[in-house]
Write a structure and sequence with these properties.
The protein is of the alpha+beta class. It has a 4-stranded antiparallel beta sheet with strand order 1-2-3-4, covered by helices on one side. Strands 5-6-9 form a 3-stranded antiparallel beta sheet. A two-stranded antiparallel ribbon has the order 7-8. A hairpin with a 2-residue loop joins strand 2 and strand 3. Helix 5 runs antiparallel to helix 8 and helix 6 runs parallel beside helix 8. The termini are far apart. About 25% of the residues are buried.
Length: about 300
C-alpha cells in the first residue's frame, strides 16, 4: 500500500480501492482506474521501437519516476465470443509483423544452433516416450492416463518423425538462403494478452524480441489450441502475412513437437493432463497434415 500511495502521490491521485487481478493490482483513484505491476523487463525500448514503426496497438504505460513498476489505464474489455476476438488478434499480429519486418543476412551459426537444439529435443522426447511406453506396458494394471497415452502413442511418434523431417528440410533449404526475415515478436501471443475496448491492444510485452516470425503464431497455437479453430485463423493470418517456404517448414516442425508429459501421484490430474497432451498431438497433426494436403491440391 505504501508503494501505491507514493506512486500515486507523485501523480496527484488518491486511492479509494485496491483489487487484485492475477498478477495485477487494480487501483481505483479519484481520477480513474489503473493497473500496477512490477516491471520485469525494460519495455520502454520496445514501445519506442513500435512507435518508430507506426504500430499503435499497444497500451501506453503512464510515465513513473520509479522504474521498478509499470502502470497502465485500466480498460473494461468489450464482451465478445472468443472466436471473434481471435480474428481481431490475428489481424493485429499480422499488422505487427508487417510493420516491423526487416531483412537480415542469414546467420548460419544461428540456424545451425536452432537445427541442432531442435534435433536434440526431438530425439530426447522420442527416447523419453519409448521408455515411458515400455514402463507402462510392463505394469500389471494401467491407470486411465496410462491407457489413454498408450492408445495414442503411435500418433506421438508420427508427430515427432514428421517434425524431424520438416526440420531437416528447413535446414537444407534455409542454409542456402542469403537473407531471412526478422520481425519484432510479441513472444507470448494469446487471447489473454489481447484486449479489446474502444481499440484493440496487445498487452504484456515483457518477452518481446527481434527474431524469426514463426514463433508468434507458434505461441498462439500453444496457448489457445484447445479453445479455438486454429486452422482457419492461420489461413487468415497467411492471407495478411504469408510465410516463405523455409519459414513454413520451420513452423510445421516446431508445432509438431509435443511437450514432455509428466505424471504425478494424482490419477485424476494425470488423466486430465494426458487428455490435454493427446489433444495437442492430434490437433497439431491435423493442423499440419491438412495444410499440406491443401497445398498439394493447389500445385
Amino acid at each position: 500500500m505504501k508503494t501505491e500511495a507514493k506512486l500515486l502521490e507523485e501523480l496527484k491521485l488518491k486511492i479509494s480501492k485496491i483489487d487484485y487481478l492475477k498478477t495485477l493490482k487494480v487501483l481505483t483513484t479519484d481520477q480513474g482506474t489503473y493497473t500496477l505491476k512490477v516491471k520485469k523487463n525494460n519495455t520502454a525500448e520496445t514501445y519506442n521501437y513500435l512507435n518508430s514503426r507506426n504500430f499503435s496497438n499497444y497500451l501506453s504505460p503512464i510515465p513513473l519516476k520509479n522504474n521498478q513498476y509499470e502502470m497502465y489505464p485500466y480498460l473494461i474489455e468489450r464482451k465478445m465470443p472468443a472466436s471473434d476476438k481471435a480474428i481481431d488478434l490475428v489481424y493485429t499480429m499480422a499488422l505487427l509483423h508487417n510493420k516491423t519486418t526487416s531483412y537480415e543476412n542469414t546467420d548460419l551459426d544461428k540456424i545451425k544452433e536452432i537445427y541442432e537444439n531442435e534435433t536434440a529435443r526431438i530425439a530426447e522426447l522420442k527416447n523419453y516416450y519409448l521408455d515411458l511406453q515400455d514402463y507402462i506396458e510392463n505394469k500389471v494394471f494401467m491407470s486411465p492416463a496410462d491407457y489413454l497415452l498408450i492408445r495414442n502413442i503411435s500418433s506421438v511418434y508420427f508427430a515427432l518423425d514428421n517434425a524431424k523431417r520438416s526440420l531437416d528440410n528447413w535446414y537444407s533449404l534455409h542454409k542456402n538462403e542469403k537473407r531471412e526475415r526478422h520481425v519484432l515478436l510479441h513472444n507470448n501471443i494469446s487471447l489473454e494478452h489481447f484486449l479489446i475496448s474502444d481499440d484493440s491492444f496487445l498487452i504484456n510485452w515483457n518477452n518481446a524480441k527481434k527474431g524469426l516470425v514463426v514463433y508468434d503464431f507458434l505461441n498462439f497455437f500453444h496457448n489457445d489450441y484447445d479453445n479455438l479453430e486454429m486452422k482457419s485463423l492461420f489461413e487468415l493470418y497467411q492471407s495478411k502475412y504469408q510465410y516463405t517456404p523455409s519459414e513454413k517448414l520451420l513452423f510445421e516442425s516446431l508445432i509438431l513437437i509435443p511437450p514432455k508429459l509428466k505424471f504425478k501421484k494424482d490419477n485424476l490430474v494425470n488423466t486430465i493432463t494426458t487428455r490435454k497432451f493427446v489433444n495437442y498431438v492430434l490437433k497439431s497433426l491435423s493442423f499440419v497434415l491438412k495444410d499440406n494436403e491443401e497445398d498439394q491440391k493447389t500445385q
